[in-house]
Design goal:
The protein is an alpha/beta fold and about 270 residues long. The chain has two domains: about 150 residues, 3-Layer(aba) Sandwich (Rossmann fold), CATH 3.40.50.720; about 110 residues, Dihydrodipicolinate Reductase, domain 2, CATH 3.30.360. It is built from ten helices and eleven strands. The longest helix is centred in the middle third of the chain and has 16 residues.
């Protein structure tokens, strides 16, 4: 399958280019960047630390969508929303790892999924998706006497909080408990907050250094605690998962899929 990378000059984009080129069954179909990027016109593969390929960074994402089978998008919410419009128009499969989208942007993704296969996940790591499945199972098994806290840490440059993965873990826990996350989520604690409300799902956000991504789902009881933890040591785990998802879309009908579908964890 021919795979295109939007945002190909960024840290994640370069990792994705490397991963596509090293994956059997995958062919690199080119990359794009925003029109203001100084990387426009440079060789995509050379930017990724590889031998030049003659495939130059374009500022025209539509043209990229037209000539590939699937596009991988780890950019920013506004760009992802525009890419979703293009995917819907051209019926091109789309893999979305962008987090921090608002409801209108998410609506555009859902509209695109009516026209093309779309795989959207807050995290494409195999280990993290296993963590989410386990979190749902533990939440369904332990009652509200066990308080649920989601703790995450990322590098100092991450702009959204809690992370998309942390929110995904919260959703998994809420699903296991049979509750609505928006109703029970506690994302900010400051000052005199009073006692913890039974049944809440709390979030703690840490930022610093070059941490790729650490996540823990904690179930704290009165006499014991259960902690499920995943630590990512390289962005390569996200790139490998995204390319795996891109290959998985071959022959799939239009629809909004998750990594749970890709990995058959449901």
């Amino acid at each position: 399958m021919k795979i295109g990378i939007v945002g190909c000059a960024g840290r994640m984009g370069r990792m994705l280019v490397q991963t596509v080129l090293s994956t059997e069954g995958a062919e690199f179909g080119g990359g794009s960047e925003t029109a203001s990027s100084p990387m426009i016109g440079k060789d995509c593969c050379e930017l990724a630390g590889l031998m030049p390929s003659g495939q130059l960074v374009t500022d025209n994402p539509r043209e990229l969508f037209e000539r590939v089978d699937v596009v991988i998008d780890f950019t920013i919410p506004a760009a992802t929303a525009e890419h979703a419009r293009i995917a819907a128009d051209l019926h091109t499969a789309l893999i979305i790892g962008t987090t921090g989208l608002d409801s209108a942007q998410q609506g555009l993704i859902e509209a695109a999924a009516a026209q093309a296969p779309v795989v959207q996940a807050p995290n494409f790591s195999l280990g993290v998706n296993l963590l989410m499945a386990l979190t749902e199972k533990v939440a369904a098994t332990l009652n509200e006497d066990y308080d649920i806290e989601i703790v995450e840490m990322h590098h100092r440059h991450k702009v959204d909080a809690p992370s998309g993965t942390a929110l995904g873990l919260g959703l998994a826990a809420a699903k296991g408990r049979g509750v609505d996350l928006d109703t029970v989520a506690q994302k900010v604690r400051d000052g005199h907050t009073g006692a913890r409300k039974k049944g809440d799902i709390g979030f703690a956000t840490l930022r610093g250094g070059d941490v790729v991504g650490d996540h823990t789902a904690m179930f704290a009881g009165e006499m014991e605690s259960v902690m499920l933890t995943h630590q990512a040591r390289s962005r390569a785990v996200f790139a490998r998962g995204a390319v795996h998802a891109a290959l998985w879309t071959g022959g799939k009908a239009a629809g909004l899929y998750s990594m749970q579908d890709v990995l058959n964890l449901d």
